Amino acid sequence: MATTVITDALVIVSTDQRGRVETSDAIAIDGNRIVAIGDAARAMVDLPDTDLIDGTGHTILPGVGDGHAHPIFAGLELLGPEIRSGRTPEAIATSVKQFADANPDLEWIVGGSYDSSIIPGGLFDATWLDSIDRPVVLNAWDYHTVWVNSEALRRAGVTSETPEPELGRIVRRPDGTPMGTLQEYGAIDLVKAVMPADDSERLALALKRASDHFIELGVTWVQDAWVDPQHVDGYLEAAAKGFIRNRFNLALRAEPTAWRPQVEAFPLDRERIRSANHPLLTCNTVKFFADGVVENHTAAMIDPYTDRVEQDDRGIANWTQEELTAAAIEFDRLGFQLHIHAIGDMGNRLALNAFEEVERVNGPRDRRGVIAHVQILEPSDLGRFAQLGVIANFEPYWAQMDPLMTELTLPRIGHRSAHQYRIVDVIESGAYVTFGSDWPVTTPDWRSGLEVGVTRETTDGVPVGGWEPSQRVSPAQGVWAYTAAMAHQAFADDSGTLKPGSVADFIELSANPLEIEPHKLPSVRVIATWVDGKRYG
């Protein structure tokens, strides 16, 4: 196999949490490994079987990772009605009807995702979708809320007599009839239980769309943070068809009310992926939802929501502390990495408590457990990430004063706004911090995520100087969170940097993301993406 040498480029060899940067000007790749940088790489140019690429001043960056995303859901969105751009319920309903008319053979119309902030309170009515002659199920951006039409409610048997589910909420009109908005999976699953399941071929096509898009963006490794049994079939189908071009690690979703049978099932799913022997697929993680989201009052809070003090509403914890801890101990004992969604300050505390007990009961080992989102963190819990060796996976794009924040989040949490997305504080505590997108909840484009992480501003520069400016990361820290820190989360200690011996996962960019004006980061072009030594672009 020929050696490839790229010269006349700015090679960002590595960055770290302190903002330090190591650079070079040339890089050599042999097979799927970096074999030399700088002078040693240039010395290889005249060797036999060497291909030379003129970098023409481009920047070469270690491959970007996405520490928390939902590629199957994102790919399925790309196959359904386009509703994300709709700014009124009428506009969304029109798009759905046009899609339904163009796809008369579909029994159900399923799509996503709509912006819940366009309606006060984020509550949508079933009747607004009743012009469509079939059941309709639309995911909100948060993927913890769905908007359905009356036919979907009818088929699911959800009526005014339906009792409130234990781990969900049926939003009701004043007369008690279901409005059409379902919050959290105890309620959402009432409808999903009667929907036709996606077959493995459709799931594989969704994964192809997602993988292709990640490659276009320069994303080389992805944590799929929600994998159900049928999704494993989709991954195996996609792998067999050659649809997988970037690395995926699968996190199998643990059910709060049915996790004990999964203790036997999950190792079998892990073995199915291992047996496929695909170089880009692993299945090493178990996912838990500790709570919901702030926007629909389902994130678990220590104190009541500011706008629901009289009801003493503290959200929904999907697990009791005892059950979450017991499940975490069992899956850890099987060698799985634990990945826990936690939004509210109580949700984060439940997750941290579980990790503490896992360490006490199962003893020390290299776990690299993850708490994803870490939106609201009670100050006394901040230092526990470093103490317990837990990775804080933030979605930096969320740390801005956009309509979702101003219309749906701040009115619910009041003074706790200052406890949101304490990225710098967690880094300075000594913990690993990684970045993700939660796509399709928000954009999978790491350039936009880095822009917000560095500025804490919207694209329009609001607020000037950034929201909670002490939590703005430096560009080098942000790149570290997307690269070297991500490699730590992935147990991929031979990646995340471009040092000799590292896996050849990297991207070629039109400009240096460490030097460009932050609001121009989304304009940096991804010229090529290299995965396992193969160049795309």
Describe this structure in words.
- The chain is α/β, with parallel strands linked by helices and 537 residues long.
- Among the domains are: 73-192, Diaminopimelate Epimerase, Chain A, domain 1, CATH 3.10.310; 248-492, Metal-dependent hydrolases (TIM Barrel), CATH 3.20.20.140.
- It contains 16 helices and 23 strands.
- The strands form four sheets. Strands 8-14-15-16-17-18-19-20 form an eight-stranded parallel sheet. Strands 3-2-7-21-22-23 form a six-stranded mixed sheet.
- Helix 9 packs across helix 10 and helix 14 runs antiparallel to helix 15.
- The two termini are 20 Å apart.
Question: Termini distance?
Answer: 20 Å
Helix proportion range:
25-40%
- Number-wise, the strands total 23
CATH class of the domain at 248-492: Alpha Beta
Helical/strand content category = alpha/beta
Average per-residue pLDDT, rounded, comes to: 96
- The CATH homologous superfamily of the domain at 248-492 is named Metal-dependent hydrolases
